[in-house]
Amino acid sequence: MTTPSFSDEELRTAIARELPGVRADLERLARIPGIAFEGFDFTPLERSAEAVAELLRGLGLQTQIARIGDGHPAVIGVKPAPPGAPTVLLYAHHDVQPVGDLSRWESDPFEPVERDGRLYGRGCADDKAGIMAHVAALRAFGCGTADDRVPVGVVVFVEGEEEFGSASLPDLLEAHKDTLSSDVIVIADSGNWDIGVPALTTSLRGIVNLFVEVKVLKQAVHSGMAGGATPDALMTIARLLATLHDDNGDVAVDGLVSTSAAPLDYPEDRFREETGILDGVELIGTGRIVERLWTKPAISVLAIDAPPTAGAPNAVIPTAKAKISVRLAPGDDRRRAYATLKAHLEKHAPWGARVTVSFEHDGDPIVIEATGPAYDAARSAFKAAWDGTEPVDIGVGGSIPFIATFKEAFPDAAVLVTGVEDPFSKAHGPNESLHLGEFEKVCLAEAMLLRNVAAL
Q1: Helix (H) or strand (E) holding 62
Q2: Distance between CA 339 and CA 9 in Å, rounded?
Q3: Do 129 and 221 fall into the same domain?
Q4: Do residues 133 and 450 lie in contact, with contact meaning Cβ atoms separated by under 8 Å?
Q5: Does the chain have fewer CB atoms within 10 Å around its N or its C terminus?
Q6: Residues 359 and 370 in one domain
Q7: What 3-state class would DSSP assign to 84?
Q8: Domain at 387, CATH number
Q9: 41 CB burial (10 A radius; 0-12, 13-18, 19+)
């Protein structure tokens, strides 16, 4: 096969040509509130899957909406490889996080709006922009037109329940293994090191989410009659949760793994600005910031069930429950880590309180050995798209457990973890946004990557 030749400038021109339509389609997708969490209306997820399928059909891909049992809909689009060319799987997800407290949003989370070069709205970055980066790259090659010159085979796989744990994913991959089989897998669900600095993600922390409940009484009792001798459940759970960290803020649970991180400098002032830490609030933990974020365990208390302050009676409450999220360093094991956390919480029960620990979900940490021709092709594409800026290898403190699922299902494929986010995207939080200038570079880099892979 003779691989079509595309210069950097030809691809730049093509991406610039396609970008207005790509943005319009991104905004249409972002208006669909497809949330896979329990308790939400799942009808928008069906609309979201159909909207993605329509985009892939418009590219001429053989497209189907797939699901396993009661799982949420995924979309698969296939374009067979030209003779002798490799096949690239392009992954993203169309479901989004809940919006949380609406009062903290500066605009309607499901009505995208541009402010200062950023597009704001739930899913505009995580991960509907990932979908549209794939679409943009394929449109740049004329995919689905009379001038179709896509140089590789393509499988677009857009999941519908990533934010809720990807429960159906292993069975989906098994059911469609032949269709999804590929030489290179591009997972567009991470981010870049900074605005203007591209990155490949080569490690991610794992996750264990659990609940801990304490019980101290059979029922609430008068705080005047019983206070002073009877522990209340909130005070008890507060003391229990405090055992999870030492005075420096390092995790104080024996047995969790810590490792070293890449030699990247992450200045404290940059970190404070990007996360919005208030003046005067100290950082927790010890060691370099990249180690605290990428290669050491972290424990966060996400929520507590207890009476609200409004209308609370003067009574000692009998029970309280907390949701805990534990991020695991690369090299740790999620099952062993859960057993370690459970034993710690049970051992440190204050005043003999009854402690019950229950599992929610988990995922393994990931380390990717990012060497070989596909990774060289990616780095070359990134450098060109970012006008000569060398990409860096980064870790990510968050978790994408399904990457391990892909690696197990397709052990011979090179897995490239990329993304559209930057440190100010605020994925999962209020006012999530996409930097439009960086998004154009992401789209260009993916088109260049497909060209480079075709030449391997």
Answers
A1: strand 62-66
A2: 55
A3: no
A4: no
A5: N
A6: no
A7: coil
A8: 3.40.630.10
A9: exposed
* Gap between the Cα atoms of 226 and 352, Å rounded: 17
CATH number at 220 reads: 3.30.70.360
Q: Are strands 87-93 and 153-159 parallel, antiparallel or unpaired?
A: parallel
The answer as to whether 264 is a domain residue is: no
- Can you give the pTM of this predicted structure? 0.88
Q: Give me the tens of pLDDT residue by residue for the chain, a chain 456 residues long.
A: 455 679 999 999 999 999 999 999 999 999 999 999 999 999 999 999 999 999 999 999 999 999 999 999 999 999 999 999 999 999 999 999 999 999 999 999 999 999 999 999 999 999 999 999 999 999 999 999 999 999 999 999 999 999 988 889 999 999 999 999 999 999 999 999 999 999 999 999 999 999 999 999 999 999 999 999 999 999 999 999 999 999 999 999 999 999 988 888 899 999 999 999 999 999 999 999 999 999 999 999 999 998 999 999 999 999 999 999 999 999 999 999 999 999 999 999 999 999 999 999 898 899 999 999 999 999 999 999 999 999 999 998 888 888 888 998 999 999 999 999 999 999 999 999 999 999 999 999 999 999 999 998
3-class secondary structure per residue, 271-331: HHHHHCCCCCCCCCCCCCHHHHHHCCCEEEEEEEECCCCCCCCCEECCEEEEEEEEEECCC
**What is the rounded CA–CA span in Å between residue 90 and residue 286?**
38
Of these residues, 127, 159, 161, 162, which one is catalytic? 162
Active site residue 162: yes
What whole-number distance in Å separates Cα of residue 291 and Cα of residue 150?
41
Nearest to 413 by CA among 173, 132, 205: 173
Catalytic residue (choose from 25, 27, 95, 126): 95
Residues 108, 109, 110, 114, Cα dihedral to 10°: 80
How many distinct structural domains can be found in the chain? Answer: 2
Residue type, 65: I
Q: Which residue has the tokens 């499901």?
A: 110
Q: Which among 100, 94, 96 is positioned nearest to 73, based on CA atoms?
A: 94
Distances (CA, A) of 446 to 61, 96, 148, 239, 385: 18, 23, 17, 50, 9
Q: Tokens 């689009």: give the residue.
A: 77
Closest CA to 182 of 248, 91, 108: 91
Measured CA to CA, the distance from residue 90 to residue 420 in angstroms comes to 14
Q: Which amino acid is at 155?
A: V
Residue 412 φ then ψ, to 5°: -90, -5
Report the amino acid identity of residue 265.
D
